[in-house]
Amino acid sequence: MLIRRNAHELVLIEQVAHAKMAGDIAAQWGNDDFAVPTPHEKATLATAMHDEGWREPDLLPLFNEAEHRPLHFLELSMEDHVKLYSRGVDEVFAVDPYAGLLISMHWTGLYRARWGLQPGGIKWGTDGRQDEVVLAEENRWIDVKRSLMEGLIRSDLEQHLWHNYDLLQTWDLLSLYASVCDTTPGEGPSAHVFDSLASIDHSPGPRTIPSVPVAVGRERVQLTLTAVQPQLVELDPYPFNVDQLHVTVPARVIPDRQYSDADDVRRALDDARAETIECTFVRPGGRY
């Protein structure tokens, strides 16, 4: 579950809904400055399903006993994180091996600083479980890659695969930004989107996504996101094949109060107000 606090309310977004929005972002990626990924359809499928393992836990939902509220996605324990993602990765492998491979890379990347893209990484635990998961998934990749090799040059497969992995991280972060960050104009300091996600409280200001590849083997750029009107965000440089990309995600809104347990949260969700979160990405300096 993604959570953000608005005034005296909590806005809750299911992970699978966020992932669908990330897939919508992936589907429109590519223009004269940014190459369309290959295979685009499978990369988009992987992106839209990258949080499939969260489907059942978000229906519970999981509970943060220390904070007396629903559990924000980065507050999950290492043990639960492994169970959740393992189930989701297996489900996607059954649908499409290439998409499953990309999501396996995404999962293990969360324990490896997004394979170098995220300074400092995400701290899920220090019990060695991370290393076990990464080793087991890397061993699985060997047979999966062998099955995908027919008619391909190995280096081409690997280059495009890791390029698509890096793009999946970008699409994921763009969707997370649109879902939980403050997309109203503000003069706050610029910060990585990475650094804005752990808290459920947000302030306005420009955000950045570093190390975004423009094409296989080419230079990387930093995307800068600047809200110029509420929910209208300039994206520089601009990577999409449409002049404006409008994305939405459904949310439920409950009071920001002390909850006694998960059942208390469920009762609040029964009476929750439905809301649609919207964000439109536009070219810098354009006419809106």
From TrEMBL:
Pfam families: DUF3891
Xref: InterPro entries: DUF3891
Protein name in the entry: DUF3891 domain-containing protein
Species of provenance: Rhodococcus koreensis
Lineage of source species: Bacteria, Bacillati, Actinomycetota, Actinomycetes, Mycobacteriales
